[in-house]
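Work Package 4 report. The design task specified in the project plan requires that, given a folded chain encoded as structure tokens, an amino acid be chosen for each position. We show below one input record used in the internal validation round.
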């Protein structure tokens, strides 16, 4: 079979190691996974009830238009339904945006330490990529990106992805920075700015931009969100994008008609109504982050203040070995060598007991691995 160079050289997405696999491989009974930025509360009981109720109907195809869900979200966000497209996780929407709005010869732009799916989806679509380097502060280089667009107008450039807050750093861009990029990129033919806000409900920063207002103001701005994080629906796969109706219409043409399954639709409907769960998830996350900051400060390990549900820290040791030693002790985290950060670890926030378990294990590993000099 002849396969293009882009597909042959594609390095697949590497998910966090599953709990059961870790138990088997390391002969463990207790394993804590803080590697995939999942909601540690487990699903909301209201969501489970809604799924239970919908089960007898799973022999039917789902509603291809996500009618009820669109109505609900439209009311909640105060935006017309024709601005909304649901996807099989926001990952599917990233893929669709590139497939629909790019072609071989066009280019997708992103930060060099950002959500890896942007690069994978671009490569799979035989589309070039350009990465903006982050500085030592591990923040997306907002002024570097703005300057690039203020001084260049290359028709190859089609889509710029900005994860805000950013995964894996947890850093965010404030209103002014995002506005400058919106202004620098507006008025171009065939150009889209994607504000990927997978973690937006976790943000505490007061100057976090209002992406919905930006979508209303700028035709080229698209907002993506997921229900896999704060709403605890990662396993059922549902995300959405808010964009200009013309752009939504093109995505609808290409997407699989039943891309959002019926259980995901009822789960999302119930989740959107469950404010208590959402608030509990936020509180759990913020308490967990503050606990991690405190502990990491005590250990003198540099870290980045996070607006998401994970924290990135510098282990001052070989990150691959660090992760491996933690696995042996039943803690799954993410090493960051693939992002050019060979000593960094990304640690998701768990339940209080899981966070304590994690810090205990981290301290044990700090004692057995030698510190690396810069
Ligand atoms: C920045 C960012 N965007 C999108 C996604 C994809 O989320 P989903 O589970 O909805 O596909 C993630 C998942 O980790 C993410 O970190």
């Amino acid at each position: 079979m002849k396969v293009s160079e882009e597909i042959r050289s594609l390095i697949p997405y590497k998910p966090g190691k599953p709990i059961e696999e870790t138990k088997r491989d390391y002969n463990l009974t207790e394993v804590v996974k803080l590697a995939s930025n999942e909601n540690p509360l487990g699903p909301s009981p209201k969501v489970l009830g809604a799924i239970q109720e919908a089960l007898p109907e799973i022999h039917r195809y789902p509603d291809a238009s996500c009618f009820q869900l669109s109505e609900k979200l439209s009311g909640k966000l105060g935006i017309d339904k024709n601005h909304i497209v649901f996807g099989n996780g926001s990952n599917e929407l990233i893929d669709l945006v590139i497939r629909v709005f790019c072609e071989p010869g066009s280019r997708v732009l992103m930060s060099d330490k950002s959500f890896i799916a942007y690069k994978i989806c671009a490569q799979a679509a035989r589309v070039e990529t350009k990465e903006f380097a982050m500085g030592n502060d591990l923040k997306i280089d907002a002024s570097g990106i703005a300057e690039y667009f203020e001084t260049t107008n290359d028709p190859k450039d089609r889509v710029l992805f900005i994860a805000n807050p950013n995964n894996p750093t947890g850093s965010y861009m404030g209103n002014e920075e995002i506005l400058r990029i919106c202004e620098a990129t507006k008025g171009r033919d065939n150009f889209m700015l994607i504000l990927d806000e997978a973690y937006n409900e976790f943000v505490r920063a007061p100057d976090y931009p209002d992406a919905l207002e930006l979508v209303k103001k700028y035709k080229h701005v698209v907002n993506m969100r997921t229900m896999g994080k704060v709403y605890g629906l990662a396993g059922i796969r549902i995300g959405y994008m808010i964009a200009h109706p013309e752009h939504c219409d093109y995505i609808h043409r290409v997407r699989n008609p039943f891309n959002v399954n019926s259980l995901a639709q009822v789960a999302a409907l119930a989740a959107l109504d469950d404010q208590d769960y959402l608030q509990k998830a936020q509180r759990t996350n913020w308490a967990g982050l503050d606990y991690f900051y405190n502990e990491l400060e005590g250990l003198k390990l540099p870290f980045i203040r996070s607006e998401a549900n994970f924290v990135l820290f510098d282990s001052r040791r070989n990150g691959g070995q660090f992760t491996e030693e933690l696995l042996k002790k039943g803690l799954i985290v993410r090493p960051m060598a693939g992002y050019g950060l060979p000593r960094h670890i990304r640690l998701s926030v768990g339940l209080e007991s899981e966070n304590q378990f994690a810090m205990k294990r981290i301290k044990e590993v700090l004692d057995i691995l030698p510190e690396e000099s810069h």
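The longest strand covers residues 157-163. Validation will be extended to a larger panel in the next phase.
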